[in-house]
Design goal:
The chain is mainly beta. It folds into two domains: 90 residues, Elongation Factor Tu (Ef-tu), domain 3; 70 residues, SH3 type barrels, CATH 2.30.30.
Length: 183
């Protein structure tokens, strides 16, 4: 299977208060970064329940160039704690970039790295994988409360919305779809 990511560069430094990262762009990735609305940052394990190596999806609010580095101003959906951990992290872009995508549309690969929020509960995990099945699409969610993952169907009965601008999948109660206590 082909790698779903393009190595776009490495985060050289961060400005936590501004949610800004300086990326040394990989060879011939400057124009890809210029055209991107999103970048995925592969963070190391943090001890906060996130799965090591799973890219964090970040909206690019603005990009400018300074001394050969791409300065990416990230959207508000990324915590300052995450930005602080990005120094030295790998910046990735999806291998299948479609610059002419309609606003508000998403692909399964776009969901990887998004936060998952349960209505009336808050953030419960992060999407670590997404794949089609014969009946419906499925997301694999690394749960924040413990070391397990949950497979959730992308069906109307469960999914309230996919907010690509904030990088969030909002779901109803997941208990009927997972074994045991899922709160």
């Amino acid at each position: 299977m082909a790698d779903p990511w393009i190595h776009a560069g490495v985060v050289r430094s961060v400005n936590v208060s501004r949610r800004e990262v300086r990326v040394a762009a990989a060879a011939q990735c400057e124009s890809l970064l210029e055209d991107a609305s999103w970048v995925h940052i592969r963070l190391a394990a943090s001890g906060d329940g996130r799965v090591e190596g799973v890219p964090l999806r970040c909206r690019i609010e603005r990009i400018r160039w300074h001394k050969g580095l791409a300065l990416l101003l990230l959207g508000g959906g990324v915590s300052r704690d995450d930005v602080a951990r990005m120094k030295g992290a790998e910046a990735l872009l999806p291998a299948e970039i479609t610059p002419d995508e309609e606003e508000g549309t998403w692909t399964l690969q776009d969901l990887v790295g998004m936060a998952v929020r349960q209505v009336d509960v808050g953030e419960i995990g992060r999407v670590v994988d997404a794949f089609p099945t014969g009946a419906n699409d499925v997301i694999e969610v690394a749960m924040l409360r413990d070391d397990r993952t949950a497979l959730l169907p992308m069906i109307d009965d469960l999914v309230v919305e996919v907010d690509g601008d904030r990088g969030v999948v909002v779901v109803r109660d997941i208990a009927p779809y997972v074994g045991g206590d899922a709160d």
